[in-house]
């Protein structure tokens, strides 16, 4: 089954404790992206990647890191989480290097930073 | 820059009512337009799309027509069901220069359908 898989789905952590949210897709997609969803703000892009070893900042990259060492994986790293990073995070992928607008989304990872 | 404006929610309708969710956009060039749906506890999924003016996208009884003259892409359904309760996102994809495309989402409109 074609899918984007995120882990963990739910996480409660404390300020400053490094964490990684994994994202993996099995569709051989070129483009991958991370979004955060907050009430009243909709979806905001954090980082994206058009190819292996190619990543770029989205609209809200501060406090986050990403890597794309393999085509299928695109982990999101919070080196020192803070409470304002409490949010619902989505990973998404698309077939071509440039986004066509047709994204496949994971089920989301709800992160709470205390 | 490009932007998408959706009607503020939440929208509450009775089952079998007619649904319209307004979406207008600002973009240079000729964007493609999309509606995504997010059911409770799930990720977004593509509902329908239109790639050029006057195109009509349709899926699961939902329709939206790309209106270039009014820069709109309103989502409609003739008779909603309880299972349509979800958050709906309008989005556009447009060329942003230097060989790049940019996908822009609206803030989402929550729909609740009551029996």
Mean pLDDT of chain A: 94
End-to-end gap of chain B? 41 Å
- Reading the helices and strands of chain B in chain order gives EEEEEEEEEEEE
Number of helices of chain A: 0
Q: How would the global form of chain A be characterised?
A: globular
* Greatest interface and its participating residue counts: A-B, 18 and 22 residues
Radius of gyration of chain A: 13 Å
Describe the largest sheet of chain A: 7 strands, mixed
Low-confidence stretches of chain A: none
Give the helix/strand class of chain B.
Answer: mainly beta
Strand tally of chain A: 11
**Approximately what portion of the residues of chain A adopt beta-strand conformation?**
over 45%
Helix content of chain A: under 10%
User: Outline of chain B, from the CA principal axes?
Assistant: globular
Proportion of residues in extended strands of chain B: over 45%
Mean pLDDT of chain B: 93
Number of helices of chain B: 0
Description:
The complex is a heterodimer of chains A (114) and B (115). With 114 residues, chain A is mainly β. Chain A is 0% helix and 50% strand. In chain A, the strands form two sheets. In chain A, strands 2, 4, 5, 6, 9, 10 and 11 form a seven-stranded mixed sheet that branches. A four-stranded antiparallel sheet of chain A has the order 1-3-8-7, with no helix packed on it. The radius of gyration of chain A is 13 Å and the shape is globular. The termini of chain A are far apart. The mean pLDDT of chain A is 94. With 115 residues, chain B is mainly beta. Chain B is 0% helix and 56% strand. Chain B is globular and about 50 Å long. At the A-B interface, strand 5 of A face strand 6, strand 10 and strand 11 of B.
